[in-house]
Amino acid sequence: MEKLVDVFLTFPSSQNLSDQELNKQAATLISTLNKTPASTLASNSNGTDLLTILNPTANSLVYLYVLIARLDLGGRNALEATWKNAVLFLENFDSRQIRNAPDMFRRLFEAFYAHAPLIAVRPIKKAIIRYNPSRFSFMHTSFLRLCLMTKCYRDAAAVLDIDLVEFPYVKNKPGETENMSNSRKEVTYQDLLCYFLYGGMIYMGLKEWRRAADLLTYVVACPGNACSLIQVEAYKKYILVGLLLDGKPLPMPKVTSAAAVRAYKALTKPYDAFAQAFKSGSTEMFRTEAALLSDVFRQDGNTGLAVQCMDVFRRMQIVALRDTYVTLSIEEISKKNLEVVGRGGDAGGKEETEGVVLGMIERDEIRASLSQSEPDYKLSQTTVHFHNNPLSELRNLRALDSQISRTISLTKQVKAMDRKLGLSKEYIQWTNRLAKMAGGGSSLLSMGDPDAMDFDYGGGWADDEPEETIMQDFDDEI
Amino acid sequence: MASSTIHAFFAQRRADNSLVVLDPPKFDLESYISNYTGRTQIERLLHIGLHSPPLCIEALKLAVKALKQTSDVPRYKLVVEQLNKLAPDDPEAVMDEEWVEKTSRRVANSTEKIEADLKSYKHNLIKESIRMGHEDLGNHYYASGDLVNAFKSYSRMRDFCTAPKHILDMSLQIIRVCIEQGNYMSVQSHIVKIRSLSRSPEEEEILKPKLCVAMGLTQLASGAFKEAAKSFLETPPTLGATYNDVISSNDVAVYGGLCALASMERSQLKKEVLDNNDFRNFLELEPQMRRAISYFYTAKYSNCLKILEEYRNDYYLDVHLVKHVNKLFEMIRSKGIVQYFIPFSCVSLKSMAEAFATNEKTLEKELVGMIGKGVLNARIDTKNRLLTAKETNLRTAVHRDTLAMAQNYERTARMRLMRMNILRAGLEVRGPKGGQGHPSGPAQGQGWVGHSGRPQGFMERFHMGS
């Protein structure tokens, strides 16, 4: 046992090894660990807890194996006993080491988050950020589901705000069937769709409609040759979020796959009708439509969003008044009868309307002021005075500045992407074909001998896509 | 007395939501209708008969009289039945069975005869004769009121036309039939056909007015008032009475004037209407239109609108205008309001209501509608009863637009990056049968790879945004 501990502690031999060196050492260690029985790993060494000897950061790999061994032997209770250690590990592990044993890590993760959802949120958040936040992993989807269940939206947003630029490569090898490969895959497309859908829902919870819409767009416009029901769910929410954001349904993204467009059109008719009624601005029509569809919304679990839409309907109509009037009495606004939610009581009445307008002014949704004609509240007529002095220029300029910096970072991502694609097999094949079409004498040949490239990659994809469609694709889409 | 039946009939029509013009129009029926010849005369009389209680009997009687001179039996029956409904006791409301019998027989006979002739021409394969045969048949159908067959016969002439003159004749005939049928698509295509033909200056002189008004009518029917105004304004005064089986010179003045009022700026009105020598000849026939336009030009909108309002009934009783009167009036009115408001930054609703001869309530409603449509760039101050111009701050507007564009761009770019990444990783949505090979993945993947095929353009787009 002591000998083993010594072996464990000598890995890694130094803190600043190169990746290659580290992986080599890790492989040796893992083979040793795999040979060691779980009971040995779980036992104590010389009366001291092995986990106290090990450092979760420096000896991440061993730490992980010990944790798993205990879980295997002890079941539920063991997790309770080692909870603190597990938290310590998740918050401090060294991602370079852990990457060598993803399966083990996944086991720990799954046991961990199933055990106690609410207190698991923070450690998992830290774990994701430590692991590699810009690479989509199995943790992402589970984490968001966890956050949704526990309503820890802010924690989820911290992860969501990091752009995903890498995805696990899950393309099937030639000759492999879907079922065979599914078990090997780290993630499936369903995980990815769910991740964005959950992300959208989390931003809805935070009432950040713009971000919610962005994430839903990814689901709605996800490429493919079929349509997933997850996408249909997302599209329903996408319509409602569009209403909350802009007062009109967002356009379907141009790149939505044909199969998806067909499915949306067939399956989301009630939502379309709802959106049209909203857009028409006619209270009467919107009210009837909302009443008709309340069952649909309940079934889809979208009642909350729909009710918010109804609430926003009135506010948007009031905002629209700004373009027509300079002053308008509260009485006239309430006469327009814009209240749709139907909470009963004073809703839609004069005083309630005044409250709504006041709230909107406070939240800066409209720039206006209220004035009362008499000092006595009972007699007074309240008038809304819409200002037309626009937002301060400074604010706009600041927003522009931050936009510029965001665009610059985006450009970097694009360059990286461009490079990645430039190195991909498809692109090289394509340039080769171009070169052949041009007579084979062009400088493109300098990129390498086509046969050798084919040999190197050895992929088995059909090359029946004609170039013309590729070019058109490009012209249409940006 | 007949008045009760008339009353009942028009009450019924009003209940059916069709137009009824209660007050008598300004024109004198006899002199109005004498401006026209041919079928349009009857068409117009029938229109008046169906829409104007004060004039219906007189109009229908005139129509019956005119129809007796033709061989259009179906229409004769229709008019007499209508008259019978309105004035059952009137001696003239009785069907002249003998005439119907005689005329029907004559029509049938001559149809047979002309068709037989045509057959023999076809047998002999003489193009010119066949063409004339079709033309005769077309004329015959036209005279007896069978417009569908007339159109067909005229259209059949096309294959046998040997000279441009023939095509010209054929097209003119078709235009006449189609205007009556309301088939303005054909009218337009035939006008284009005629315009593409080469013609001598003399022919041109005769043709131009007809083409101009036909084009104008087409544009009017499709609601393109600005283009219609242009066409009517271009019409040479040589039109005179030459096209009376379709349109009179008075109509040109009215149609052109209204369309111009509805679609042109004040300076344009001055330059293209009032100072237009050709059009002045037409306007002299309708002095009230001239006055209305001058009032509009001199910004006396209430006078202009008053004149037009007085003549509204006349316009309702015109076959070509009836569908557009309300729209045209609304446009003229709202244009008047916009023009009226231009020099002000702030106007009291009261003085504005006076200028447009309405009360404040309706004016306010109208203004709200106009602002909503984006026609009028102003806001209403309901407390102080004012209409104030919107202040626009171009600088902030530009900032705002830039920001919106950049954000939009960023979103699109992010979405595309995400898509490319997803495709690269093979995470695209697949159908349940995705097991066998790669139905779409690789193909789509290639589509995206194509982007880097033009890296330069691709990157430029990104730099533009920053």
UniProtKB/TrEMBL annotation, chain A:
Keywords: Cytoplasm. It comes from the Eukaryota. Residues 26-258 form the COP9 signalosome complex subunit 3 N-terminal helical repeats domain. Pfam families: COP9_hel_rpt. One of its GO terms (cellular component) is COP9 signalosome. One of its GO terms (biological process) is ubiquitin-dependent protein catabolic process. InterPro entries: COP9_N (IPR055089), CSN3 (IPR050756). Transmembrane segments: none annotated. PANTHER family: 26S PROTEASOME NON-ATPASE REGULATORY SUBUNIT 3/COP9 SIGNALOSOME COMPLEX SUBUNIT 3, COP9 SIGNALOSOME COMPLEX SUBUNIT 3. This is COP9 signalosome complex subunit 3 N-terminal helical repeats domain-containing protein. It comes from Morchella conica CCBAS932.
UniProtKB/TrEMBL annotation, chain B:
Keywords: Cytoplasm, Nucleus, Signalosome. PROSITE patterns: PCI. It is found in: Cytoplasm; Nucleus. Residues 224-394 form the PCI domain. Residues 429-466 are annotated as: Disordered. InterPro entries: PCI_dom (IPR000717), Rpn7/CSN1 (IPR019585), Rpn7_N (IPR045135), WH_DNA-bd_sf (IPR036390). It holds the Pfam family PCI. Coiled coil: none annotated. One of its GO terms (cellular component) is cytoplasm. Belongs to the CSN1 family. Component of the COP9 signalosome (CSN) complex. This is COP9 signalosome complex subunit 1. It comes from Morchella conica CCBAS932. The lineage of its organism: Eukaryota, Fungi, Dikarya, Ascomycota, Pezizomycotina.
